[in-house]
Every structure is written in structure tokens, then in C-alpha cells.
Amino acid sequence: MPLSAPGSMEKEHQEIWQLLMGVQNLSGKTGSVAEKLPKDLKAHIDKEESLALPLLGILRDLVNGKLTNASARRASSLYVKFEKEYPGMLHGHKELYKVLERLKKVGAEEGHLTAVRFAEALEKHSQEEE
């Protein structure tokens, strides 16, 4: 059985995408700034969902004493890949924060509080992951 991300995290990522689609459609500079997010954000989320989140997904089996040897081997292999990618993922967060700061500033100036709240929520999400 493949390792999988916790459903709650996948749901949270889906919600982020839905909110981002709405923010991109806002008028003025706010929408333009938001349009810079999808490409890098998609690549980052794809890495999270393939490397980091499946490792979280095994925790329930681990604490309940139900982790199989096969799952442990897959997790170990995945961890080695994740360990190599992690510094780049943290760098991705730093780059993302720069765009989110701009989005908050421009969104506030143009009265798009939805964009400001979205940027704050995504910053919080990223900080929780770190």
C-alpha cells in the first residue's frame, strides 16, 4: 500500500487553490500580483504532497503499533528524498513570503481584504509546515 498524505492536509491544499483562484480574479494590481503565485505554489505543494505529507500519514499506524515493515521501508526511502529537498522547500517558503507581502500591501491599498486574508492564511499555513 502506498504512503499517503493525511486527508486533512490535502483538503487544506484544495481550499488554498480555491481561494487563490478567487484572488487572481480581483481587479487592479492585486489580481496581477496573485497571478504570480500558481506556478511556484503548485510545484511546492506537489513536493509537499509527494515527500513530506506521506511521512505524516504514517504517524497513526506508527503510534498504534500497526506500521508494517514494508511501510517503514517506503517511509525510510521517502525520508531520504525529503531530507535532500527540504532546504529547497524552505527557500521556496521564503520566496513565497515575498510575494505574499506584496499581495497584502497591494490588496490593502486597493481595498481587497480577501487578498489580504488569503495572504495571511497562506503565510500561517507555511509557518505551520516549517
Primary descriptors:
130 residues; mainly alpha; 6 helices
Task: Give a brief description.
The chain is mainly alpha-helical. The chain has six helices and no strands.
- Let me know the largest β-sheet: none
Overall SS class: mainly alpha
Q: End-to-end distance, in Å?
A: 27 Å
The overall average pLDDT, rounded, is 92
Low-confidence runs of at least 5 consecutive residues: none
**Helical proportion?**
over 70%
Model description:
The chain is mainly alpha-helical and 130 residues long. The chain has one domain (7-129). Helix content is 84%, strand content 0%. The chain contains six helices and no strands. The protein is elongated, with a radius of gyration of 17 Å. The protein starts with 6 loop residues before the first helix and ends with a helix.
Secondary structure layout:
Blueprint: H1 7-24, H2 28-34, H3 37-57, H4 59-63, H5 69-109, H6 113-129
Helix pairs in contact: 1-3, 1-6, 2-5, 3-5, 5-6
